[in-house]
Each structure stands twice: as C-alpha cells, then as structure tokens.
Amino acid sequence: MSAVWQYFSLKSEKDSVAQCNTCHAQVSRGGTEPGKFNMSNLIAHLKQHHKTLHEDFRKTTELKKQSSGNFKQPALPETLAKRDKFPRDSKKALTLTEKICQFIVLDDQPLSVLSNIGFKRLIEHLEPRYVMPSRHYIVDKTIPQMHKEVKECIAMHLDKASAVSFTTDIWSSDHCPLSLLSLTAHWIDADFTLQRAVLHAREFRAQTKKRFFPPKDVSHSNSDAIAPPPGLCLQIISLFVFHMVCRSSSGVCLSNDQVAPPLRLLIVGQKRTGKSSVGNTILGKDVFNTWGGTNSAVAHGESEDRQLMLVDACGWGTDENLVPKQEKLELLNALSLCEPGPHVILLVIPLLYFSHSEKAALQKRMEILTEGVWRHTMVVFTLGDRLRDCSIQDHIQTAGRDLQWLMEKCRYRYHVLNNKIPQDRQQVSGLLDRAEDMLMENGGWHFSLHMYSRLEEEWSRREREMQERIVKRQAEGGETNRGLAVCM
C-alpha cells in the first residue's frame, strides 16, 4: 500500500472520492470505477495544500525505493544452483565433513554412526545440499589431515613447555572392544593451566613382548617432571597418534601410517542362485565365472573406497540328507582361502519361495562350519528386481516358517542385491556398510572354524560335568531321604 494513505481515508474501497485527514477536503481518485482509480490527485493535494506533509511523504517514498532497490530477483540458473549438491572438495562440504569428524572423535562415536538413519536425516534436514561421505573417506582423508594438524599443534605446545611429565594407562573404548596402552604427556602452559595430550596408544595384549616406554635416551630425574633435552619433542611426536585412536572398519586400532587390512568376504550358497554374480557386482567387474565351476575362486579388488578380498565358494547341491564328501572338502577349502578367516559370510538366497528341503540342505552344510558361523553370516537376496511394489520386509513375513527360521539364525541381517544392474553402486555400498557393522558387532573378530570347534568342545565338556553333578546331587539326596525314613 502506498504511503499516501496515511494522509487520506476512505469510507469504502469503491469510493471514487477520498477525504483528507488534515483539512477534510474531498479529493477525487481520478475516475468513477475501481479500475481507473489512481493517486495523482491525492499527491497533488498534499503538494498544494500541505507542503510539510508532502515533504514527509516524498522522503518516505524514497526510503522505500532505496530499500527495495537492494532486492534483486534471482535468475533461474542461480535458483537451480541452490538445489545442487555441494562438491566434495568445496569449502562448505569440507567444513561440514571436518565438524562431523570432530563429533566422532571427541564424543568417541563409532564410524558406523555415518550409516545411521537418524543421523543421516538430521544432516539432510540441516543442509540438504551436503552429501554424507563414506566411512573410508573419513578414515583415509579427513582423519589423517586432522592428525597432522593436531600433531603440529601438540609439537608447538611441547616445545614451549619448560617441564613435561609422563603417565601410562590401560583403558578401553566403549565402541572398540580392545585394551589400549597409552602414553600421556602433562605440562603447565604460560597461563599456569595444566594441559595434557595422549601421545601414543597401542593395543595391549597379555602375551605381547613389545616395549611401551619413551625412547632410551630420555633421562629421568628423581622427580616426575623432566626437562626435555633437545630433540625430545620430535622423538615424542614421532610416536604421536591422534588422541582419540582412529578405529578402522575392521575394529583394529590403526595408527596414521598403517593401512587397513582388506575386508574378507566368503560367498556361499546353492548352485544357480547368482552367487558368482554377487561377487562380480560387488567388485564392479567380471572376475568370477558365472557358468559354474568345480573349484572355489579368490579375487582381490577395491570397491566403494574399500579394499576387499572375495572368495566364491563352489556351490552345493540339493541333497537334504547327506552332504557329499567332495562338497564338504570344497567348503572347507574355500574357508582356508580366507586365512586367517572370513570377516563376513554372505549366504546367497534367491528371492523365490524358500522351501523346507532347501532349508534342510542349507542346515546340513552350515553344520559343517559349526553353530558359531551364524554370528558372521548375512543373507544376500538375489533377483532383487522381483520385489517390484512389495518390500523385502513383507516378503520375509509372508514367505513361511522356513525363511523365518533362517532370518532368526542370521539375526535378521540381510541385504537385497540386483545383479542385473551392477552399475547401481548404492546397493553395493549398503551391503559393505552392513558387513562392516556386523564386523564391529563381533568385536572385529573373523570367523575361525578351529576356534568355534574348540568352544563347542568346551561347552560340551562343561555341560557333561554339570549333568554329572546334578545326577550326583540327586543320588546323594535320595540316600539322605532313605536314611531319614529308616530313622523315623
């Protein structure tokens, strides 16, 4: 609305005459119909009869023009550009990635938080244009850069310190089930504030014979505080690892100069289930023979910023009563190709009806690997294009008791893969993320047939001893009751 209407009033919007609020004169609005109304006569009336009010009106109009002149309607390309995702190396993306990395390190969060649905939704709500980096990008790119910056900062502070004290401690993280032995430096800064920094941390095992002490040329005085000789800071910093130890995807603590071991995946399943195609889809290239074979095959490669080792085990048959000797030997051979053992076992099942006979055949083969194999097993459903409008959850619920049994055995750890579209890398990234989450759930341990066989033997031995004690107590109790009966 124009500023002129603070000096005039109307009885209704359709009036062709406005009344001056100062002299109560009736001023025409320039026409008899609403479409022809204008404000020229009203402004002229102020200019002729109320010069002071007209000057105020002119200043108010100019201020509005100046304020509105700063506004510029954005062009269409500029509007569309605001919807584009940030490039990974853009300043905004790098800043957000650094802040997320600080959140993980300072709050001792597992790297799997990057895959959590709630965390993803929060980031997408706060900044829709930001693309969440993979955990391997965090480990390989962001954390090393942060390590370098923190290292330089600690070196600067230690060079300024007049005295440094050292302590060692054994501790463990809530998210990394390993004992760590750390070396911590303590000093007082120029503001007389006590400062400290963890200079080094290593996995601590009872059988290790490694030394975890400062270099031999560091001479200690009688007191706890020592004056650092020349070059001491460089010797200490050479041991420095990022103060919240970087946990690799395999659950093993790695220093900045170490390389994460490859994720070892063993692919098993019945013949003609798309098992070899699963390996090809994961690696993004044809490395396994999809026409069938009599021997297991091994392939190494990189996929979605991860180093992988895949073993495609020879497919088994449909006999539900007896496992042929050759199948058993080939399954154990495939397991040996994953030395020291697979991190995750991918059990390939087509998205078809899972029958009772298939369950029985599967159960016979998995028994060869002991009951402990289920802790490391994830079901990979092939023929993902058959889902169409049905969700995988609905398929599991309506597929029958046999598939429900399989899901309970695997703790409902599954993934759907469509081998017909291997260029869809998002499905592969999701599978590898789930595999790494399983590895963390298992404390970073791989599957070992020897270890689980010994555990089963130990459990059986303890169970027998417990049963023997129960029988013995029952027998002693019976003799006591008979003795009481005789006395009575």
TrEMBL record:
Signal peptide: none annotated. It comes from the Eukaryota. The keyword Zinc applies. Keywords: GTP-binding, Metal-binding, Nucleotide-binding, Zinc, Zinc-finger. Residues 1-57 form the BED-type domain. Residues 260-456 form the AIG1-type G domain. Belongs to the TRAFAC class TrmE-Era-EngA-EngB-Septin-like GTPase superfamily. AIG1/Toc34/Toc159-like paraseptin GTPase family. IAN subfamily. PANTHER family: GTPASE IMAP FAMILY MEMBER 4-LIKE-RELATED, GTPASE, IMAP FAMILY MEMBER-RELATED. This is GTPase IMAP family member 4.
